[in-house]
Design brief:
9-stranded antiparallel β-sheet, 2 domains, Elongation Factor Tu (Ef-tu), domain 3, single chain, 8 helices, 5-stranded parallel β-sheet, alpha/beta, Rossmann fold, 393 residues
């Protein structure tokens, strides 16, 4: 088990984002007697793609400074924009260009907050790094060693364990999540009682520690617009359950222009994602159009009418062996799990099936799932503990 220092001698660096959750995390740790330091991460310099009145980084930094002053804790800003560009932004551009949809928040936690940021915090002498995530961490003893569990937050509407699905045991060993046992309303109440400036501040909806971003503008910095066709595929009843083998069931549907009718034009297939409804600028259909397929080579976007379109629904996905990650290596033998393919999606019963030839795994759901999207993360749980995850192929 971990050697425990007295709380009064334990130094904790809190990632102060300028929001209410991290503010209360710092407040609770200070109240418990820890030596608390506040650090704000600056990850982005280009304000041209940020909606400045929604959540600009400068306003967040100022709010974080005011909170630190209120709590009488040391505070500083660290610039991680170079690492963020290399590890997150460049990855995002490459994924979108290939027709996949990345999840920058999951990557930001793995690559920035709990890697680059954590290393800098530990270099300052910190024993732990704390964030305002709605999740919980528990330590177990096994054969004289510590095993760390990543548990769902008790506020099910705010549970953020999915965003931490790529963390390792080494990262969890140095992490604290002070508000994971609280409801959001309780967090705001605590902030009001502590007279914190962030008590009534709206939650950020933007990319990790950047602010709210116009994604098309962001992508157009490097991905050029290119006019292409939008093709509607009829919603003819189709039974995919008879597809032969798990590999066939896990593959995205293949379309060609002859299968549908032209509905208009787009400005770049790489700007769209499976399941997208807004941004098509195509009208005149009985039911709303959803993106059901993307071909970035031929620059084609395939759409279908209605959220019940057959091409939006599949029951199986595949994760390459190189994209597999286990928070709990000792639980890799579990095959009957609960899983989700996006944040806030209710957990669904699923089975993990190893591909003996390629080494990856199939994740097969009991019920079909809507808009299984390559590039996104699937995460699976045993009860309320997140045990593994991977990038959807």
């Amino acid at each position: 088990m971990t050697q425990v220092k007295p709380i009064s001698e334990t130094k904790v660096v809190v990632g102060l984002s300028g929001g209410v959750d991290s503010s209360v995390a710092a407040y609770l740790l200070k109240k418990q007697g820890y030596q608390v330091i506040g650090l704000f991460m600056k990850n982005w310099h280009d304000d041209s793609v940020t909606i400045s009145d929604e959540c600009p980084w400068l306003e967040d930094s100022n709010d974080a400074l005011i909170v630190a002053d209120r709590l009488q804790i040391p505070f500083q800003t660290i610039d991680l924009s170079e690492e963020y560009k290399k590890r997150i932004v460049d990855y995002m551009f490459a994924e979108y260009q290939s027709g996949r949809t990345p999840n920058p928040d999951v990557l930001c936690n793995r690559e920035i907050k709990f890697d680059v940021f954590m290393k800098q915090a530990l270099a300052l002498g910190a024993d732990y790094v704390a964030t305002g995530h709605y999740c919980r961490r528990e330590e177990l003893a096994s054969e004289g060693k510590s095993i760390y569990r990543l548990l769902s937050g008790l506020d099910r509407a705010k549970d953020q364990s999915y965003f931490l699905c790529q963390l390792s045991q080494q990262q969890l060993a140095k992490s604290l999540f002070p508000i994971g046992h609280l409801q959001k309303a309780e967090v705001r109440s605590i902030a009001r009682e502590a007279n914190l400036i962030t008590a009534e501040k709206r939650d950020s909806q933007g990319l990790c520690f950047i602010g709210k971003v116009r994604l098309p503008d962001f992508l157009q910095q490097r991905l050029a617009s290119k006019k292409g066709r939008i093709i509607e595929i009829p919603n003819i009843p189709y039974d995919h359950s008879n597809a032969e083998g798990l590999q066939a069931r896990s593959m995205s549907y293949a379309f060609n222009p002859d299968m549908g009718i032209d509905k208009g034009f787009h400005q770049g297939a790489h700007f769209f994602t499976i399941g997208q409804r807004k941004g098509l600028a195509v009208g005149g259909t009985k039911d709303p159009l959803f993106v059901i397929g993307i071909d970035t080579i031929k620059n084609l976007v395939y759409v279908g009418q209605g959220s019940d379109h057959w091409a939006l629904w599949r029951d199986t996905l595949y994760i390459e062996s190189s994209d597999l990650h286990y928070v709990r290596e000792d639980l890799k033998h579990l095959t009957e799990v609960k899983a989700r393919i996006r944040y806030r999606q209710p957990l669904e019963s699923a089975t993990l099936i190893t591909d003996s030839e390629r080494g990856g795994v199939y994740l097969r759901f009991e019920r079909k799932q809507s808009a299984i999207t390559p590039g996104q993360f699937a995460a699976w749980y045993h009860e309320d503990e997140l045990i593994g995850s991977g990038v959807i192929s």
